[in-house]
Specification:
Blueprint (H helix, E strand, L loop, with lengths): L6 H16 L5 E3 L3 H10 L6 E3 L2 H4 L7
Parallel strand pairs: 1-2
Length: 65
């Protein structure tokens, strides 16, 4: 888990997302940190990425597993 995201990290995520889409895949981001989530919101990338609050949520389970 990270508590800091900069433009380099966002660029890496965007390139990864593009490559996955070319292979019919998708990138989901797990982001439980409100400050990091705010970066995605301010940049508009919350509309690009599927963002989840936990790994269990991203995998379709509940947080108790």
């Amino acid at each position: 888990m990270t508590t800091f995201v900069d433009s380099t990290a966002l660029g890496v995520l965007l390139r990864g997302d593009e490559r996955l889409k070319e292979a019919n895949g998708r990138l989901s981001v797990v982001c439980p940190d409100e400050k990091v989530l705010r970066v995605f919101e301010v940049t508009g990338l919350h509309r690009v990425f599927e963002i989840h609050g936990s790994r269990a949520e991203a995998l379709g389970g509940d947080d108790n597993s």
